[in-house]
């Protein structure tokens, strides 16, 4: 959604709602500024007309204050904070200072979060945590070194706070406040932010595997290990200098990564199914960077070349959607005001979901066509921007807007072509190495269908294993030793003969062993 710039009266107040949603509970109000900037938002702010850009993730924490409710002393949510930042700020450093002041004054509630704020010159990371007493909030910010790459994946990334490093920004009372709340964790005399907020993972490697993968892709020379000692590991740096310059298409490819070529590639495992799908459901397999449950992904661009700020938006899963550039201007209807509960064939989100459902189900057969066509559209958009960057701002915006409609039409055509290739299953082929075992019918002889009771089969196997263990412990029963299944009620001459012969052989062996 596009939010227009606006001027405000000197005594005007800015209303604050639960989760930044005017349809939810009214929480309070803060003084409004004289002018607010135009920006693009979903439920969170993304980018404003000054090319101030945001990126964010919600984090896990073992503290009881995680996912807290609003209170009189904590009225700002992550959604509201991102909007306030874009409404009021031009530079990233100003945004960090404003957020620090606002959290100290109005408090933070809701989900622990990592927020990246960047402009054309510099970028910062600020991490937010609700206070344990639901009043105020904790935060720490750190500047990203020039030319460095930073990644976060649903887990806090700032570790120990260096008071002597000007790149760290935090409330001077943070350590004492956390000590009073009995949550402060110190490392070599410094507050360890990650340990203090108990910033664990949802499950082992849910976050850290993605951090490892991203760092390894941009800086393979560092040879980071995918294995760590625990969630508070220091094995991965806060940021890293890439081995090579990272292009827009490199970043797009990174958001689509599914660990291909590594031991964590789900497509090569049983979870990949007959068509080697790289995604998994629930907690089966690794959580890759790309995920079929993704609602949207965006990559924002800030430079001094294009006349307008740009964000590349992909609706639905990034692996099956196409990134479309949008300017901070009115959003074309195919991308705006989309309901995720009411189907609308005229919306890009629903089109992307149709493409995803079809492709993921028959991945090995359909994904190559999808990847080729999506990349062609993205290359077309990139070329169009490069050819149009010298245009006046309004004309540039119209070119980008028309391109977004073209992208929708091309994706619609792609969906139709994928259906044609599917051809009711006639053109589908199982992934290499994933073919099911096939027993051909080679005669007219009736084949008996045998139903296997898995639970019964499992119970019988356990019984055999138990019997085997007992045999090793207690020895073989005498009647087994002489070759009969069980000892009969009466001994006939044959059984008696076997007993006698076996006993003689046993005694002879014992004598030989003594000699």
Strand order of the largest sheet: 8-9-10-11-12
Give the number of DSSP strands: 17
- The helix/strand order is EEEEEEEEHHEEEEHEEHHHEEEHHHHHH
- Overall body shape: globular
Query: How many distinct helices?
Result: 12
Helix content: 25-40%
The mean pLDDT is 89
How large a portion of the residues is in β-strands, by DSSP E? 5-15%
Rg? 32 Å
Q: What count of domains describes the coordinates? A: 3
Uncertain parts: none
Biggest sheet descriptor: 5 strands, antiparallel
The secondary-structure class comes to alpha+beta
| End-to-end gap | 96 Å
Quaternary structure state of the chains depicted: single chain
Structural features, described:
The protein has 515 residues and is an alpha+beta fold. It has 3 domains: 1-246, no CATH class; 258-438, no CATH class; 454-514, no CATH class. 34% of the residues lie in helices and 14% in strands. The chain is built from 12 helices and 17 strands. The strands form 6 sheets. It has a 5-stranded antiparallel sheet, covered by helices on one side. Strands 1-6-7 form a 3-stranded antiparallel sheet, covered by helices on one side. Strands 15-16-17 form a 3-stranded antiparallel sheet. It is globular. It starts with a strand and ends with a helix.
